[in-house]
């Protein structure tokens, strides 16, 4: 009835039943992880480093579409813990032979973090391979550990116990033991008798090296991915799946064929003083050659600070100079010299150095006390926590615009890199790189006919295992009209894993002022009015990162907040709101019907940016469509990322 349009709401339970039926067989064959299935035999397993490896697998779900019920299959890869002896795992994790030097405190923390919750099996009892889950690490070395063996207070050391009970002579007596079982009655297991159980997915944060390695195995040209998907469907042999048969489910082994349209690229306006005053991107790409930013920002006072041990004498100075020149060439009003010579500081002293530098620069500027417009920061190539600390201090304590550059780029100093960084700096100091010709000419329907503000909102959640970190909500809103190019942003920490954005609208009691209202929407609406002199008569709200199960909850709560924020400005102020949910993490892949047709694919084989699909494979009632919003980008190695297709509802 739902698929035939005779019932408005999707019958979630019925869909779930069909989904479960089709998952039954793969669940027995493979390792299920949420909606995907992985196996060490579905393609090569690949080492990711530090005791992790990648397994290949596939995503599978039943979806209601305008064509009826569809089976959504996509290839995927994820990280698993290598089924190594624990001693070997720890050696890989610490990158050294652990029998040589005793563990340091930080080694211990690292091991504990990596192993907590991991299942191991014991190897010292022949075929009795009992499994345990690791709950911690002992603070003492194995040779110092003892425990009561009976109720009369007889105590035995772990070393003695293993020798007497199992005839096993523990070698690594200086290492701590693994703790299994609960905290009241902990069980001690020497690392050397434990092996990690195969098939455990690793869901904590990967380091940069592991991410790069994982991307390398995930990245596939579209043509290969399509082949693998078809092969997976064939291999899964749904036609002879006894459960599917029992429920009368038949699955077509062909891919669905849909019609698509390719939207024309928007023409981009640059400054009239440049040799090229506008540009029409081709296949999602264009560059800044012979063009100037449409509004170059001003950087009168700037300084540079270096945290990288490897950056030699003149390199930092030369780099900053080249960057300043590139900013000028691109159209910014950028002072050629910093207000102070390059300062150096150690990463450990980031807070002290930034604050001292800030005051020095204030004193050195003319007139004194004038704030810095920009701080250029040279960072070591691999210290994410320094980046985080620096941004926190600059943005929440000093109110300082900063541009970080990695050491490797300071060495290479390529023109392309400098030009890209110039674009970032310009936006950060309030300039505009380009605007849409159609916006200036007021030719964008439902945007340029009357004052319209465009919002974007997202929430980032901490990784599993980082249980005390807050979720972070971010909201941006356009601050120019009709161009809709310049955005102001606000961020706000909120409760752990909370998807609904709490700070969109706020009411509180103030002892002096009585009832006060605020929140991110209200602030951004006010700053729009200040910047443009007009009240928005229309709101378009793009909301990222909402899972399908939460659509209506988010829509109701946040739309209500938008309405209240408007009403708090003026009693009858209720501009129409369009609420658009954007999803990047879905598994619908679109391939060109003919991979060799140059009119429908780019050089990597991805379908063209601007491709829109809004029929057949879309939801029967949710007004969704797929948009390939940018070109498939090369990600460093010789393969290409699959074009990201944004699904919008
Ligand atoms: C940059 O800072 C590091 C760390 O303080 C220092 O070792 C290095 O010598 C500095 N480089 C320059 C050019 O000052
Ligand atoms: C900067 O000026 C302030 C106030 O005039 C003064 O206290 C401080 O010592 C000066 N700092 C430097 C490094 O000159
Ligand atoms: C990374 O930066 C932090 C400061 O954020 C510092 O404490 C730490 O020592 C740095 N690590 C290295 C390896 O330099």
From TrEMBL:
Keywords: RNA-mediated gene silencing
MF (Gene Ontology): RNA binding
Domain Piwi: 374-632
InterPro entries registered for this protein in UniProt: ArgoL1, ArgoL2, Argonaute_Mid_dom, PAZ_dom, PAZ_dom_sf, Piwi, Piwi_ago-like, RNaseH-like_sf
A Pfam family reported for this protein in Swiss-Prot or TrEMBL: PAZ
Segments forming domain PAZ: 85-198
Annotated PANTHER family: EUKARYOTIC TRANSLATION INITIATION FACTOR 2C
Membership in a protein family: Belongs to the argonaute family. Ago subfamily.
Official protein name in the record: Protein argonaute 1B
């Amino acid at each position: 009835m739902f698929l035939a349009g005779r019932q408005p709401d999707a019958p979630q339970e019925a869909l779930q039943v069909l989904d479960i039926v089709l998952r039954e067989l793969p669940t027995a064959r493979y390792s299920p992880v949420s909606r995907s299935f992985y196996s060490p035999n579905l393609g090569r397993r690949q080492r990711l480093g530090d005791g992790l490896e990648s397994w290949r697998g596939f995503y599978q779900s039943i979806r209601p579409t305008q064509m009826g019920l569809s089976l959504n299959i996509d290839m995927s890869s994820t990280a698993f813990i290598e089924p190594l002896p624990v001693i070997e795992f720890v050696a890989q994790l610490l990158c050294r032979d652990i029998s040589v030097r005793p563990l340091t405190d930080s080694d211990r923390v690292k091991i504990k973090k990596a192993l907590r919750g991991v299942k191991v099996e014991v190897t010292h009892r022949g075929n009795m391979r009992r499994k345990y889950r690791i709950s911690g690490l002992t603070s003492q070395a194995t040779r110092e550990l003892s425990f009561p063996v009976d109720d009369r207070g007889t105590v035995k050391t772990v070393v003695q116990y293993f020798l007497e009970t199992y005839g096993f002579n523990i070698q690594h007596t200086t290492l701590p033991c693994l703790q299994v079982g609960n905290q009241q009655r902990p069980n001690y297991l020497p690392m050397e008798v434990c092996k990690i159980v195969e098939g455990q997915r690793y869901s904590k944060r990967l380091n940069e090296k592991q991410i790069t390695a994982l991307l390398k195995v995930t990245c596939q040209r579209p043509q290969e991915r399509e082949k693998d998907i078809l092969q997976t469907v064939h291999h899964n042999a749904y036609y002879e799946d006894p459960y599917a048969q029992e429920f009368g489910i038949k699955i077509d082994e062909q891919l669905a064929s849909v019609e698509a349209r390719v939207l024309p690229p928007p023409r981009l306006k640059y400054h009239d003083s440049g040799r090229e005053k506008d540009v029409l991107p081709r296949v999602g790409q264009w560059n800044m050659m012979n063009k100037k930013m449409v509004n170059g920002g001003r950087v009168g006072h700037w300084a540079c600070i270096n945290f990288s041990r490897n950056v030699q004498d003149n390199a930092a100075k030369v780099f900053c100079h080249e960057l300043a020149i590139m900013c000028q060439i691109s159209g910014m009003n950028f002072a050629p010299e910093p207000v102070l010579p390059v300062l150096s500081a150690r990463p450990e002293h980031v807070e002290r150095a930034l604050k001292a530098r800030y005051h020095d620069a204030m004193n050195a500027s003319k007139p004194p006390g004038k704030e810095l417009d920009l701080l250029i920061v040279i960072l070591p190539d691999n210290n994410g926590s320094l980046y985080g600390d620096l941004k926190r201090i600059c943005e929440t304590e000093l109110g300082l615009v900063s541009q970080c550059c990695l050491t490797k780029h300071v060495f290479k100093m390529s023109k392309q890199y400098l030009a890209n960084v110039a674009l970032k700096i310009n936006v950060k100091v309030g300039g505009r790189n380009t605007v849409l010709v159609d916006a200036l000419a007021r030719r964008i329907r439902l945007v340029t006919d009357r004052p319209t503000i465009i919002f974007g909102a997202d929430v980032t959640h901490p990784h599993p295992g980082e249980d005390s970190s807050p979720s972070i909500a971010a909201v941006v809103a356009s601050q120019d009209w009709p161009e809709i190019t310049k955005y102001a942003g606000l961020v706000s920490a909120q409760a752990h894993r909370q998807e609904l954005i709490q700070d969109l609208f706020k009411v509180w009691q103030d002892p002096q002022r009585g009832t006060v209202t605020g929140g991110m929407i209200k602030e951004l609406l006010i700053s729009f009015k200040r910047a443009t002199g007009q009240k928005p008569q229309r709101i378009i709200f793009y909301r990222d990162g909402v899972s399908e199960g939460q659509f209506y909850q988010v829509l109701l709560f946040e739309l209500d907040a938008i309405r209240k924020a408007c009403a708090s400005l003026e009693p009858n102020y209720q501009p129409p709101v369009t609420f658009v949910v954007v999803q990047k993490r879905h598994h619908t892949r679109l391939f060109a019907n003919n991979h060799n047709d140059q009119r429908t694919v780019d050089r990597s084989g991805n379908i063209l940016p601007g491709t829109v699909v809004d029929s057949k494979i879309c939801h029967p009632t949710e007004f969704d469509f797929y948009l390939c919003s940018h070109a498939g980008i090369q990600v460093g190695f010789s393969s290409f990322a699959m074009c990201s297709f944004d699904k919008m509802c």
